[in-house]
Amino acid sequence: MHLKIITHEKVVFDEDADEIRTRGVSGEFGILPNHVPFMSALDIGVTKVVQNGEARYFTTMGGIFQFKNNEAVILTDIAEDGNDIDVTRAKEAMKRAKTRLEEKAETLDSKRAEAALARAVARLKATKNNN
Ligand code: ATP
After folding, report:
1. In terms of pTM, does the model score above 0.85?
2. Which one of 60, 86, 91, 96 would you pick to mutate in the ligand 1 pocket, going by the greatest count of ligand atoms within 8 A of its CB?
């Protein structure tokens, strides 16, 4: 089967894959070749792509997953190859978001802080290859 991971800005991945695991809004799911047509909204998380027994990891942050006729498409706001992630930046973003959530300032936008935390966690997970 084939997988494309596309953002507004670029095509992050456009190759054949033997297995795809990703995080939908209702939980994680996996797709193998010849799966029936399937569509899901995506959560902020990590997409694992297996090619010839080797796994690669990408962040995928929201958007939609569609599978039909062995063609998978992930259309997402932000996607990054796990190898391109700046770990220090992600750790700092995680720390900032955690501090904001702990301090609970009156002006806190908790949804925004939680989303920032989820993005940072996904980035760190994608770099560590420990999905
Ligand atoms: P930060 O607070 O560090 O900017 P963020 O989660 O607010 O993190 P986003 O708004 O999700 O950042 O992303 C803005 C742009 O920066 C996107 O193009 C994204 O791919 C890139 N980006 C964000 N964090 C990282 C990172 N740790 N490594 C590589 N690219 C990153």
Report:
1. yes
2. 86
